[in-house]
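Thread amino acids onto this structure.
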């Protein structure tokens, strides 16, 4: 019985995959995430701020500058994108960009609403 419950949970989890995202939307989200990541790397925080949903309070250029400006100092220079994963979430979509810095492997995670506006940006 426990195996059946575990199998059911795995099937439910697999349902939250990128397979239920239309191909065009996947490409749009991929390009937007790479663009936002590039803006963060270059310190163009105002451009990132323009992509944030109006429903989000407190994610402006100054906050982004405070949170992301020290990334290269701590982890070294950006090297390359390793892979990209995306999934459907309750509020829209999540895109995780796995990247390599000189001294660290990291993830940028972008949460989007249904209209493609940023709901959250996470760095790990």
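Threaded sequence (124 positions):
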């Amino acid at each position: 019985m426990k195996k059946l419950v575990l199998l059911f949970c795995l099937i439910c989890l697999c349902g939250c995959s990128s397979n239920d995202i239309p191909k065009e939307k996947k490409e749009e989200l991929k390009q937007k995430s790479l663009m936002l990541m590039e803006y963060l790397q270059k310190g163009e925080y105002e451009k990132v701020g323009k992509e944030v949903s109006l429903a989000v309070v407190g994610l402006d250029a100054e906050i982004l500058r405070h949170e992301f400006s020290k990334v290269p100092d701590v982890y070294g220079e950006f090297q390359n994108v390793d892979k990209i994963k995306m999934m459907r979430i309750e509020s829209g979509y999540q895109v995780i960009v796995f990247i390599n810095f000189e001294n660290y492997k990291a993830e940028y995670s972008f949460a989007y609403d249904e209209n493609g506006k940023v709901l959250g940006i996470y760095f790990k």
